[in-house]
User: Fold Cyanate hydratase from Gordonia rhizosphera NBRC 16068.
Amino acid sequence: MHAPIMPKSDAAELIIAARIRSGLSWSDIAERIDAPLVWTVSALLGQQPVPADKATTVCELLNLGDGVLESLVRQPSRVADAAAASDPTIYRFHEALAVYGPALKELIHEEFGDGIMSAINFKVEFSRRADPEGDRVVVTFDGKFLDYRW
Assistant:
């Protein structure tokens, strides 16, 4: 009889704890597995399947067992977490899209035509930019345009 594979949420909690206790940053881990920063964090929090070689490196780096490795390589179920939506940081992204989403939609349609920005063929970048009035959070969404075809 086999034990069930560890849920991705449990693996994520173990990864977070091991990362903090090891003193490694998310950037350190992303660099070690040669992957984009935001993708790395998303993957290690359970939202992406992690290639076996990268999952092995993470588990070795953080001294985590085969249970975490098994979980990391599995295909995730990507569902919205209602509790996370109320977190102030995540809520601000919802707020920004509520305010600017319709304008961005209009601009996408004006520039590209009838279609959408892919969230599958997609890259996201994060950085910090110094500003005299307080440092700025810079988030760049880079998605392929997908035209509607009738």
